[in-house]
């Protein structure tokens, strides 16, 4: 008995030592030794747009003083694994893309999806049926077809499917795609309209769950692999456009009793299901209701969220993302939609729009988010088409009168993340000593660290980038964003 105990003790000690050695080896995977830092900058009132602006070296670092501004990166402290950054291919985006010349189409595709010529988008969102960013409402079935016998995605074959296929090809053949419904069909809803809210009627729960499976299989038959789906776009908003309302309890019950079991029955259990898909303000309550129910939670990959809680005039609720992450660390967080509302052509180059992106992305990543998806990748010179007049900004617009593409500052700000932080990167601890700067860092699988630093002030700032006992000194212009690769 003592001998067996001795053997077990030795075995446990050996396993613990091996585990510790493995952990230390993983943590020691990054060093600043002989590393050069390449700095890329985009800045207001300059021509700098993702422009290489400096090549720096590390030197010995001493205790910084309070009069210095510093960014501290600790590679040993690692957090979530990064999935990707991308945007939505809506009907509006696809319709405008089709109006471009072949040369401009190629330029556009490269601008978003090529890692060398563009900003390397690595994830894609699209819609199930119509949204407000369609030229009109439409459906994949005839009205009243509860059994979905008339189901067809023929509508999408004209514009949307061809663009998605080209995006996937430009991205190198892989672009994880997830799809979101804006509304069930009118006959399935309490208000008998796809517009202006209403609820899914209980007698159509199963039909609507079947609808997701039909869509996924139809798109995959077209050669577009579907990675995931969300339950409902903005389930607490009664909009003038396609919308449908679910309380937290209603979404939970639809998930666990219909959508989850149906996808499993149809052989689609690999499809990731995203809950909520609405603003940060109520996401904690939605998480508590859904993730606290084991039967619902087992079907849910994670939670999607938007940034429009500021419609009240209040500030963005970044901390709510952190609250969900700390309460449910096994669930993933994904920013699923954001755009600058109320289109105004005079504000194409309005810098604050870009800074909204930079601030949101830095906070969301630092709070545990694994993926970040912008809204429309392309709109016209009016901020549409949108069949209810809800015109908005996109990072790139096309002037259909002259066929030219208009790149907004938001495109470049997003690119400071998407071009340099690649799928499967791991976020590492990053902090700043003054509120003038915001920063986040990721360690890529190729061993290169990417640190993004944003200056939202009116002044040029000199700051230290400090890693352990090494540092470099960097200047960032006023209203600028930098990516440091080292």
Secondary-structure blueprint of this entry?
Layout: H1 2-27, E1 36-43, E2 51-57, E3 59-60, E4 69-81, E5 84-88, H2 91-98, H3 102-113, E6 123-128, H4 154-158, H5 160-170, E7 177-181, H6 205-221, E8 226-230, H7 248-265, E9 272-279, H8 283-291, H9 294-297, E10 300-306, H10 318-327, E11 332-337, H11 351-366, E12 371-376, E13 379-380, E14 396-399, E15 404-407, H12 409-418, E16 426-432, E17 437-443, E18 449-455, E19 461-467, E20 470-476, E21 480-485
Parallel strand pairs: 4-19, 5-6, 5-12, 6-7, 7-8, 8-9, 9-10, 10-11, 11-12, 13-14
Antiparallel strand pairs: 1-2, 1-21, 3-20, 4-16, 14-15, 16-17, 17-18, 18-21, 19-20
Helix pairs in contact: 2-5, 3-5, 6-7, 7-8, 8-10, 11-12
Keywords: Glycosidase, Hydrolase, Signal
InterPro entries: GH, GH30_C, Glyco_hydro_30, Glyco_hydro_30_TIM-barrel, Glyco_hydro_b
Domain Glycosyl hydrolase family 30 beta sandwich: 424-484
In short:
By secondary structure, this protein is α/β, with parallel strands linked by helices.
Characterization of this structure:
Residues 424-484 form the Glycosyl hydrolase family 30 beta sandwich domain. Keywords: Glycosidase, Hydrolase, Signal. Belongs to the glycosyl hydrolase 30 family. InterPro entries: GH, GH30_C, Glyco_hydro_30, Glyco_hydro_30_TIM-barrel, Glyco_hydro_b. Residues 1-19 form the signal peptide. By secondary structure, this protein is an alpha/beta fold. It is built from twelve helices and 21 strands. The chain has helices spanning 2-27, 91-98, 102-113, 154-158, 160-170, 205-221, 248-265, 283-291, 294-297, 318-327, 351-366, 409-418, and strands at 36-43, 51-57, 59-60, 69-81, 84-88, 123-128, 177-181, 226-230, 272-279, 300-306, 332-337, 371-376, 379-380, 396-399, 404-407, 426-432, 437-443, 449-455, 461-467, 470-476, 480-485. The strands form three sheets. The chain has a ten-stranded mixed beta sheet with strand order 2-1-21-18-17-16-4-19-20-3. An eight-stranded parallel β-barrel has the order 5-6-7-8-9-10-11-12, surrounded by seven helices. α2 (91-98) packs across α5 and α8 (283-291) packs parallel to α10. The chain is globular. The protein starts with a helix and ends with a strand. The relative contact order is 0.18. Mean pLDDT is 95; it is low at 1-27.
């Amino acid at each position: 008995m003592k001998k067996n105990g001795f053997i077990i003790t030795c075995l446990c000690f050996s396993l613990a030592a091996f585990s510790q050695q493995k952990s230390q080896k993983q943590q020691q995977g990054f060093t600043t030794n002989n590393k050069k830092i390449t700095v890329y900058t985009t800045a207001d009132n300059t021509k700098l747009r993702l422009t290489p602006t400096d090549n720096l070296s590390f030197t010995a670092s001493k205790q910084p003083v309070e009069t210095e501004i510093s960014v501290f990166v600790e590679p040993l402290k690692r957090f979530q694994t990064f999935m990707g950054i991308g945007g939505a291919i809506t009907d509006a985006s696809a319709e405008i893309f089709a109006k471009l010349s072949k040369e401009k189409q190629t330029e556009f595709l490269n601008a978003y999806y090529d890692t060398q010529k563009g900003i390397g988008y690595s994830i894609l969102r699209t819609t199930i049926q119509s949204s407000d960013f369609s030229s009109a409402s439409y459906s994949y079935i005839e009205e009243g077809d509860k059994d979905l016998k008339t189901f067809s995605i023929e509508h999408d074959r004209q514009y949307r499917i061809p663009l998605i296929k080209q995006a996937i090809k430009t991205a190198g053949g892989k672009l994880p795609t997830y799809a979101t419904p804006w509304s069930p069909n009118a006959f399935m809803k309490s208000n008998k309209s796809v517009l202006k809210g209403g609820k899914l009627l209980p007698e159509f729960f199963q039909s609507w769950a079947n609808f997701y499976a039909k869509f996924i299989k139809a798109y995959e038959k077209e050669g577009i692999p579907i990675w995931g789906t969300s339950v409902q776009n903005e389930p607490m908003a009664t909009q003038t456009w396609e919308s449908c309302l679910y309380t937290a309890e209603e979404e939970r019950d639809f998930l666990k009793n219909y959508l989850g079991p149906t996808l499993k029955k149809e052989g689609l259990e690999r499809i990731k299901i995203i809950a909520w898909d609405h603003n940060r303000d109520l996401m904690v309550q939605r998480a508590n209701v859904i993730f606290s129910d084991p039967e619902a939670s087992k079907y849910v990959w994670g939670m999607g969220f938007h940034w429009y809680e500021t419609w009240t005039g209040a500030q963005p609720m970044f901390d709510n993302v952190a609250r969900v992450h700390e309460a449910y660390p096994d669930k993933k967080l994904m920013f699923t939609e954001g755009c600058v509302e109320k289109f105004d052509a005079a504000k194409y180059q309005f810098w604050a729009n870009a800074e909204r992106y930079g601030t949101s992305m830095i906070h969301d990543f630092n709070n545990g988010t694994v993926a970040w998806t912008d809204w429309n990748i392309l709109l016209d010179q009016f901020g549409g088409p949108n069949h209810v007049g809800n015109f908005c900004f996109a990072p790139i617009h096309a002037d259909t009168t002259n066929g030219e593409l208009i790149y907004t500052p938001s495109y470049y700000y997003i690119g400071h993340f998407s071009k340099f932080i690649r799928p499967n990167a791991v976020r590492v601890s990053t902090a700043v000593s003054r509120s003038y700067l915001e920063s986040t860092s990721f360690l890529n699988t190729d061993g290169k660290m990417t640190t993004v630093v944003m200056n939202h002030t009116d002044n040029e700032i000199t700051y230290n980038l400090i890693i352990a006992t090494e540092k470099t000194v960097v200047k960032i212009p006023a209203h600028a964003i930098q990516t440091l690769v080292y």
